[in-house]
Specification:
The chain is an alpha+beta fold. Helix 5 packs across helix 6 and helix 5 crosses helix 7.
């Protein structure tokens, strides 16, 4: 990492005129940098301009395409743009932070331009750097972007911009993690939006959610069991049922160990009575950890109960597995009001199952259950967000 940031620092300069040869462009960058570094105050003042400066030197599209080359054809255009922006911002951020710490470390006498190989539209340039008493050879890969030579890879004996610095994110895609999680890791974000429903249109079926089979007769009912609703310019998921429990699932894979806390808002708008049989729940949010050897999902549910006190753990024994639910709310809690929940499924799994869960989740689901009462059950959900903060297990009431 130190060498990468040092290399970026050398190139961190004002935009130079386009050159006939890529080596001339790189040398022009460096000479501008030498004058620019004479005033420490100026370096700090121009930190805000770092994105413009590095945009002149790096081909972000090519860097990102090569980083995710194994999967690029399967990534939507929208996500290609988002991942490109994330990669760009990561390199700019890391380069900028190092520059402000070590901007007095580079001298022209420690640099020697070496080999150049041009085969338009691509070129290879080598630079020897005296770093900590050791000569390090840096190889730049450039290509023409319009009339300007831009960098798309940097390599040393033990480092490559794409294959070492960025490749970890491609491996995440290979392992089936969602793009949202990969983006959050590139940004080093403290939170990960699983769904806030803002990408939907009012009255639509929610994107990336599903349940049952597409040809199930219940899917052709005239009234939608789940749909997007709008309230004071905020979009949210609304569900209702009068006859049977309705589960909606969102496949979503992220690292639960890195984002152990989950928050969301929900609102129970009607209050069916518990029939005394079956599960005692009006609404539920379920974290799906994995599938067991016969394909049964191993889950942990967080429920809004009709008759059971908060913090109770409900257990249901089946032939091949046991399911668990933690009661967060009861029928007496804030009916008709939006309520925010904060849970720690990573610690809850350890507490209940006696071991930590697999780090990679499968998804989440929501439930709307009229309790066989014949009374319309209506539940709203919004803002499912995972957080990197580590709190104790859920339900401290």
């Amino acid at each position: 990492m130190k060498r990468l940031l040092l290399i970026l620092f050398i190139l961190f300069v004002e935009k130079a005129p386009a050159q006939d040869l890529p080596s001339q462009a790189l040398k022009s960058y460096f000479h501008t940098l030498k004058d620019w570094l004479r005033d420490t105050v100026r370096v700090h003042e121009q930190k805000r301009a770092s994105d413009h400066i590095m945009d002149t030197m790096f081909d972000w599209d090519e860097i990102t395409r090569r980083t995710f080359e194994d999967n690029w054809g399967n990534i939507s255009k929208t996500w290609q743009r988002r991942l490109t922006d994330a990669v760009r911002r990561k390199i700019i951020r890391d380069g900028s932070e190092w520059m402000l710490r070590f901007h007095r470390s580079i001298y022209e006498k420690n640099l020697r331009w070496s080999e150049e190989e041009v085969n338009e539209p691509r070129a290879k340039i080598s630079l020897d750097i005296l770093l900590d008493g050791e000569i390090v050879r840096v190889n730049f890969r450039l290509q023409l972007s319009g009339a300007v030579w831009k960098i798309y890879d940097i390599r040393t004996e033990d480092f490559r911009l794409i294959k070492t610095y960025l490749n970890v994110f491609n491996l995440m895609v290979n392992e089936g993690y969602n793009n949202e999680y990969v983006e959050a890791r590139i940004f080093q974000s403290d939170s990960l939006i699983i769904d806030d429903f803002n990408s939907n249109e009012e009255d639509d079926y929610p994107k990336s959610w599903g349940w049952r089979k597409k040809d199930d007769p219940i899917m052709s009912l005239p009234s939608k069991l789940y749909r997007i609703q709008k309230e004071e310019n905020n979009l949210y998921l609304s569900g209702q049922s009068q006859t049977q429990p309705v589960i909606l699932v969102k496949p979503f894979s992220y690292n639960l160990k890195e984002f152990p806390v989950l928050t969301w808002q929900w609102r129970v708008k009607s209050q069916p009575k518990y029939s005394g049989t079956g599960a005692d729940r009006m609404a539920a949010v379920t974290v799906i950890f994995y599938q067991n050897w016969i394909g049964v999902p191993i889950t942990l549910s967080y429920v809004w109960s009709t008759a059971t006190a908060p913090c109770t753990i409900l257990t249901r024994e089946d032939f091949f597995y046991t399911s668990y639910s933690i009661v967060l709310r009861s029928s007496e809690d804030r009916i008709g009001e939006w309520t925010t929940e904060k849970i720690n499924p990573y610690e809850d799994y350890r507490r209940i199952f006696g071991e930590y869960p697999p780090e990679q989740t499968i998804g989440i689901s929501v439930l709307n259950d009229p309790q066989s009462s014949g009374i319309l059950s209506a539940v709203d959900y919004d803002n499912f967000i995972a957080h990197s903060t580590s709190d104790s297990s859920s339900c401290s009431r």
